[in-house]
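hey so i finally got around to running the thing on that chain from the lab meeting. sorry it took forever, my laptop kept dying and i had to restart like 3 times. anyway pasting the input first so we r on the same page abt which one it is
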Amino acid sequence: MVEESVRLSRVFCEKKWPIFAFLDSHHPDIPEHPYPPHCIAGTDEAKLVPALRWLENESNATLKCKDCIDGFLGSIEKDGSNVFVDWVKSNQINQILVVGICTDICVVGFCLLDIVCKKSWFPFSSRKCDRIFLWLCYL
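ok and heres what got predicted. didnt touch it at all, straight out
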């Protein structure tokens, strides 16, 4: 499934469509209960999979490290702004394709809880997000 994520990412980049990628990145001394330590900041687990690391150099890709399950909450900055909401606004997003690896927690949670439940107040240009496409990749 990584290959399909790479293929879709390349299509998006060729078309200059915006990409937003969450990277799970945790401090070793701050547990994320009930899960065991994972994706510790500075380790390979906290990076994109090798086949997608080229996205780090793509101008249309925004990468956001998050230290919690909830991608929306993980996008809140110290000044109260939200990197994801700002990305949605600046790119005038009205459709979202979500892909991910090991998706049964973070990715599904982001789609179901954050996008679906909160879309009524998301600033999707002048209207709400009208389509959310979810494609799950399991390794």
